[in-house]
Amino acid sequence: MNLTDTELDALTEVFNVGVGRAAHALSELARSTVRLNVPKVEMISKQGVTDGLTQQGADRICAVRQEFSGVLNTEAVLMFPVQQSLQLVQLMVGSDVPLEQLGEMEQEALAEIGNILLNSVVSGIADVLGLQFEGTLPQVEMGPLEDVLCSRDASDDEVLSLQIDFAIDALEIQGFLVFLLDVQSIASLKSTVQTFLGSLS
Amino acid sequence: MSTATHATPCPIWSDWALDHLQVGLIILDAQHQVVFANQWFLQHAGLESCDMLNKTLFHVFPQLESSHFGMFLAQATRSGFPALLSQSLHPTPFPLHLPAAQRGQDKLLRQSIRIIPMSFSASSDVDQRYTMIQIVDVTHSVLRERLLKAQASKLQSLANLDALTGLGNRRMLNEKLAHELRVSTKTGGNLAVVIFDIDYFKQFNDIYGHLAGDTCLRQVADALRDVCRRPNDVVARFGGEELVAILPETDQSGAMQVAHKVLQQVQLLQIPHAGSGVARILSLSAGVAVSKPLQSLTPDALLGLADRALYEAKGSGRNRVCGFDAQDALIVTAM
């Protein structure tokens, strides 16, 4: 089961709605313009995600994880290379001190930033596609990429992966948002997107 | 189904448990009216139950309505997704203090807040959709982290010093320059960088020995520190005999003036230099570069420009200041 290019294009549009809301909320927090963009949405294996991030030299990552359930069940994992997560928090919190690592309070700030983004993206999908989800609170995880994605066990599993580009002041950061979906959930996502596309034509 | 749920009485200990929780708990109904606030919250807010019950939360705490908390609450209610307000981004949304008996210093409690709307499925079993607000006092964690950071920054400042001159070292230069560039981008100000190089320093060392060379470097460093003493000025040793000044809120002509002053100060020291090709005493060459508003140069690009100007200063005879103006035309000022 896979999504066609047309369906992925439609999803990219839908995701950009939610990401736009997130950018607005994050700008309020940062008191500075935050621009977000989703240039690419694809179905890709966990191994593919791992390879992509490893190529960027990000073997250790910082992730914010939330679960969403409803017509389809998914774990959403927002991932940053550790160094970039430090810069992001430093900018949002407005701290002068360069961070060596995320302390307890900074981790919580990252959880909040991730929570805003994930809630906005999923509520964007829910609104546009007419779905209803329940969500959990965010969890921050840090560690090797394979551990966060559990890609060692099931590296062939396909995930829905979004590249998210952040621009705050002069800083540009690339994050990755991955939706882990089981086969059933992929099927219901596909049929929902098809219904949505049908309603447009 | 809903009658079944209503028929199940709450366990007799539940009120007691809620009131003895060591976190703040507020339950709002669908209209954001307070239907419950636990003892912890009331005590720390200095309120009685009747001050809150059946009033909207924004009536009790008007300052929250147009705050980030208000925005988060509205969004959580609309989307049904739980939200988190971190202490780092919102230190003290609620006016909570230690209970009177424990007050040493009466400061606001640092708060970590969760807004948890009742799930759609749970709310279908009751009359409406409630929202729970959970507030954890993280003041102790904040103090602990502050202490650790203070220690870390003390160690870091030691690690950022150049042992010979007492100026910042290359590492501190990189950090400060990146920071000041971010600040200048945000505030739309100029940021100037000046690189100083001691003329014929190799010959100085050859003639007078390395110990004299070290002393001379220290003297030049002192002169530089003397001239650049605004609070945000940063002076660092770039490497070898090159010293750098980072001058926030300084334009081209201002930076040229500062550079000049440094050259003059060193001239006043009258350090004999028999190996100099330009004077009998020790002299400097300086290159000036400025990152202008909206230019957003990278640290490397800005240092590169200053280095190019320094190269010009040396190429055109040393003992002088060079810089490039907005039209990229070379400005040279000799001593």
Description of the molecule:
The complex is a heterodimer of chains A (201) and B (335). The model of chain A has no long low-confidence stretch (mean pLDDT 87). By secondary structure, chain A is an alpha+beta fold. The relative contact order of chain A is 0.24. Chain A has helices at residues 5-30, 46-55, 82-93, 104-129, 145-149, 183-200, and strands at 34-45, 60-70, 74-81, 133-135, 139-144, 158-168, 171-181. Chain A has six helices and seven strands, in the order αβαββααββαββα. Chain A has one domain: CheC-like (Chemotaxis protein chec). Chain A starts with a helix and ends with a helix. By secondary structure, chain B is of the alpha+beta class. Chain B folds into two domains: 2-144, PAS domain (Beta-Lactamase, 2-Layer Sandwich); 160-334, Reverse transcriptase/Diguanylate cyclase domain (Alpha-Beta Plaits, 2-Layer Sandwich). In chain B, 43% of the residues lie in helices and 19% in strands. Chain B has 13 helices and eleven strands. A six-stranded mixed beta sheet of chain B has the order 7-8-6-9-10-11, with helices on both faces. A five-stranded antiparallel beta sheet of chain B has the order 2-1-5-4-3. In chain B, helix 11 (210-227) crosses helix 12 (252-269). The longest helix of chain B is centred in the middle third of the chain and has 21 residues, at 139-159. The N and C termini of chain B lie far apart (92 Å). The A-B interface holds A 25, 28-29, 32, 89, 92-93, 96-98, 100, 103-106, 108-109, 111-112, 115-116, 119, 122-123, 126, 132-138, 169-171 and B 68, 71, 75, 78-89, 112, 114, 116, 119-121, 138, 141-142, 145, 148-149, 152-153, 175, 179, 181-182, 185-186, 296.
